[in-house]
Amino acid sequence: MFVLDQNRSLYEERSVVSEYAQKTWLHTPEIVLFLRYHDAIAHSRLLDIGVGGGRTTLYLRELTRQYVGLDYAGQMVELCQKRFPELPFFHCDVRDLRQFGAHSFDFVLFSWNGLDYIGHDDRKMALKEINHVLAPGGLFMFSSHNRNYRQAITRPTLEWSLNPARQYRHLLTFVAELGNRRKRRYEQVFTDDYALINDEAHAYALLTYYIGKNRQVVQLADAGFKTLDMVDVNGELIEPDSNDSHSSAIHYMAQKNA
Q1: Chain centroid to CA 204: how far?
Q2: Interhelix angle for 14-21 vs 2-11, to 10°?
Q3: N or C: which end of the chain has fewer CB within 10 A?
Q4: What is residue 55's DSSP assignment?
């Protein structure tokens, strides 16, 4: 709960909402999986969790039979309602999806590592809630930070520029990163199963969940899912024994057990 509350406040900030409103592109692994499972997604009842500024809404609203978006940041929901007034968006916590009922959706998407900004116990609760709202055999697609990534552990560094104005901005960013890092580094958690790392996201203001792909497969199985595909940041399919140290995140396609 601590991680969820701490991270939520940042996503309510006006500057962050504005930043997410500018994001309109799909990532390469998302394109790969959307094409690979196009027939299953087309005309499905789709739940888009962590919708942010509506980045994926742009592409999925015409493809699906029923599109529903939700986010735990109220400002993000308001933004999406203004951008897409014809679609339903909910201010909702992924740990409690009871308002939708069992088997309400055929496809659930939780994109851009959104699942990584809640704690470990909350994550397991969220996976069970997602399983509950999916129809038997339904698909769940998400991405997660890779514990095996060789650059997962970083520290603030000062960028240099010959342009005085740009150098001043770099200095301000560096000072902010140092301050955030000082506050959050002692909250980090490292276990055999996962890690909560204070990485460079949002100037080191967050704790981010990292997990290796094999541990993620087990976590999914415990929540009632079978892992169908794993894709690295380059859009390449990877296997459980693949070397994935080059990939900062991994995209997963899972299926609810029938």
Answers
A1: 17
A2: 70
A3: C
A4: T
Q: Residue 66, exposed/middle/buried by CB under 10 A (0-12, 13-18, 19+)?
A: middle
Phi and psi at residue 155, to the nearest 5°: -140, 155
> What does the pLDDT read at residue 2?
45
Query: Is 57:48 a contact under the CB 8 Å cutoff?
Result: yes
Q: So what's the pLDDT on residue 18?
A: 54
Q: Where does 134-163 have alpha helices with state H?
A: none
228, part of any domain: yes
Hey, what are 163's tokens?
């342009």
Supply the CATH number for residue 72's domain. Answer: 3.40.50.150
User: Which residues, given as ranges, of the chain have pLDDT below 50?
Assistant: 1-2, 10-11, 16-17, 21
Whether 226 maps to a domain, the answer reads: yes
Number of structural domains, the chain?
Answer: 1
Specify the 3-state DSSP secondary structure of 128. Answer: helix
- Which contacts of 83-87 are long-range, i.e. CB under 8 A and separated by 24 or more positions? 83/21, 83/53, 83/54, 83/57, 84/54, 84/57, 87/57, 87/61
169: in domain: no
Handedness of CA 18, 22, 24, 25 (dihedral sign): negative
Q: Which domain holds residue 109?
A: 2-145+212-256
